[in-house]
Amino acid sequence: MTRTRNLTSLIVIVIALALSIPSMLAFRDAVGVPGGEHSLDDSVREALTDVFPDAARFDAWEALEGGFVAVDQDDEPTGYAVVSEGKGYGGPMRLLVGVGSRGAVMGARLLEHQETDGFIDDILAPEYREQFTGKRADDPIELERDIDGVSGATGSARGFAEAVRAGVTAIEEAR
User: Fold this and answer.
1) Pairing mode of beta strands 77-87, 92-100
2) pLDDT tens digits, residue range 55-97?
């Protein structure tokens, strides 16, 4: 009887472990592992690499949900990033906003949008995005104050600036 009970218990434990492994792996991939990278989709990974080209890796940033730390070859943080959102003319706009270790914007990259292609092209241009570089949390980062708009795409430009400001603010509050 005891032997049957022990064998039954062992079988139940093995089955429970086998069923829980996919959930544990999904959790690990969703939140990242300590000292490891988030499970990144290609657009976020590409944006991070574009904003922080010298980073050796991108770790989960525990201080900010959904945040990343750019880490160099010497294992030193070089900057922080977060995916933030603004409201464009056509709907929500998701951006990756990167801030250097000294608090200045390193770059912002559009990840998703619902804007009209012809209008969003000007916002995707490096000349437009460069005006955000160097901005800090104490800057307005607001259309027609310290950010130039885009003729015919005011709503899109406003949404982009709103998302950059939200990202910079979130990063500064978490630092």
Assistant:
1) antiparallel
2) 999 999 999 998 999 999 999 999 999 999 999 999 999 999 9
